[in-house]
User: What shape does this take?
Amino acid sequence: MERTIVVTGGAGFIGSNFVLQRVAAGDRVVNLDKLTYAGNLGNLASLKGNPRHIFVQGGIEDSSRVRRLLEEHRPQAVVNLAAESHVDRSIVSPEEFIQTNVVGTFRLLHESLAYYRKLDAEAQRDFRFLHVSTDEVYGSLSAADAAFTEEKAYEPNSPYSASKAASDHLVRAYQHTHGLPTLTTNCSNNYGPYQFPEKLIPLVILNALNGRPLPIYGDGMNVRDWLYVGDHCEAIAQVLDKGRVGESYNIGGESEKANLDVVRTICSIMDEAHPAGAPHEKLITFVKDRPGHDRRYAVDTSKIKRELGWRPRESFATGIRRTVEWYLANPEWIAEVTSGEYRRWISANYEARECRA
Ligand code: NAD
Ligand code: TYD
Assistant: This one.
């Protein structure tokens, strides 16, 4: 039987990849997205006219909009990907992070609970609320520390991760107190098609393409674990289908890299795929560090592997090549997202960081 899923934030980076994957798999997706600067219907252009994708513009904090949408479409699941997601923006303008990530998630939970309570016993047994979160809620590791497990105490350090931690706690509380059947996923850094070029990997690809400086914060030795977005979307789908209610699942690529190594890898792929007069590495520029910059994230993914049998298909080597090739093959998408608001952010963020090399 066709399943209806409400996906929030489905016009963003991970959301649009998830929507494309779920519609291709046969689900009917009702996509609720506010279309902030990070939301782009162009990501979903291939679904135009497809009756299995219904787009609704609106915020998750708009309780009456959410209520009407749940009553009209009667979903079997809500998957919450709507968020303000960029750490640097949370440092300069945190207000939206509290409104969307905290207040918005709370209202979405509250309306989902009201909807859930009216379902019959069989529909209640099948209903799930899946909340997509981040490994950043766990805090920062030093080089010798073990990777984050699901038991690691939350120690968020940025306004972004603090707002995501708050939302995770609300999800837990709605399950524990009210019995809403929730699931939470905590994933590491994603990369791949449709990522807005404010984040490291697409920013570096685009700057390299245009011969602009490749800005590296601090000493470039901060470590992230990188996961190809398609693998993250498959993990979300498996947690939705088979995850144990009330549990959280870490998701990661087992692919820890220092930022400088990520940028150098992109440069060498660009040297082959889009040769310039000089090696792209020459564009690397060290700039002022991010305040409170977390040193290292690493996720222990034993639980999702053991319980659900999920593992990533892409290695960093294959995923990053696919990603660079995707950006080189999609100049219209790049032109669409790099106008107005994008230019304002790039000049505000980078002109304030003096060059250190
Ligand atoms: P994104 O910024 O690319 O997209 C966010 C989407 O949410 C946009 O389409 C935006 O229009 C929409 N949105 C924002 N506020 C909204 C609101 N109030 N109501 C409805 N829609 C709203 O983000 P992303 O990178 O795709 O991240 C999606 C989710 O995954 C977030 O919850 C994020 O915390 C989490 N996550 C991201 C990463 C990553 O590396 N990008 C890693 C782990 C977890
Ligand atoms: P980002 O893509 O913003 O993800 P997050 O902060 O959520 O991990 O950044 C990834 C890493 O790259 C992080 O350590 C900050 C660093 N970074 C730079 O060095 N230069 C940049 O211009 C950006 C955007 C990020």
Notes: The chain has a mean pLDDT of 97. Residues 87, 189, 199-200, 203, 215-217, 222, 224, 259, 290 surround thymidine-5'-diphosphate (ligand 2) (CB under 6 Å). The longest helix spans residues 95-117.
